[in-house]
Design a protein that fits this description.
Blueprint lengths: L3 E4 L5 E2 L6 E9 L4 H11 L3 E2 L2 E12 L9 E9 L2 H5 L6 E6 L3 E5 L33 E5 L2 E10 L5 H10 L3 E2 L11 E11 L3 E10 L3 E6 L2 E6 L4 E11 L4 E12 L4 E2 L9
Parallel strand pairs: 11-18
Antiparallel strand pairs: 1-3, 2-3, 3-6, 4-5, 5-6, 7-10, 8-9, 10-13, 12-13, 14-15, 16-17
Amino acid sequence: MAITITEKPDSRTSTTGVDRTVELLYIVRGTADDLAAKAALEAGVPATYDGLKLKNCEVKAAFVDETNPDACIWHGTANYSRAESQRTAPETGDSTFSFDTGGGTQHITQSIMTMGSYAPDGETAPDFKGAIGVHNDKVDGVDITLPVYNWAETHYLADAVVTGAYKGTLFSLTGRVNDDTFKGLDAGECLFLGASGSKRGDEDWEIAFRFAASPNKTNLTIGDITGINKKGWEYLWVRYADEVDGSAKALVKRPLAAYVEKVYEYGDLSQLGIGT
């Protein structure tokens, strides 16, 4: 009697999702040899099922009689799953994104607003116009968390694109701020932190681009100084001077002038070649 395989009624157990699977169950008859039973199962089941590839086959003895192979019964299982290439390999031109809003820190010497000041009965607390941590000869300030949006984009670029000149462009734009609208951010808000990449075989490059965003601010007020405009990655600092507070009858530190400094060069981030 030839070896036969028959699918069982309780076959075709399946799962869904990215790593979905299917399990086909069989009865194998006609041999007392486990290797022959497994070979017959592998040859008799579909190579693919529901878009999935055959991963492996296994057999388990149910009844084996060496003297009567035709009476032998084996339980067979064919397992199907997505191929590794189907799950993970992006194609040239694809891209992926990740982000966090953990923010950055900055040392500031000036508050947005003084919410309260207190002094003993009969006395008046000196008005420092928002200066923080004022001592006789200095303003200590405080470290705060600023709204900084960090994100990374991984792009798969053709080998012909990633030339020596292109790598030089990545180098020259690192540490530069966008001089025009980029990724929905106004000029001055996006800082290019750099890129890292590796070649995938002979076809393309996997390159991760890292950025940080900080919002532009307009019409800021510091003490009695108004109308201050500052782009996201410019640096604002305050000069303080001694002044007499007549109400408190005390010498205080107050903002004398505010300065907005350019600390990053601007650049054309469209030259990165990943869209704007």
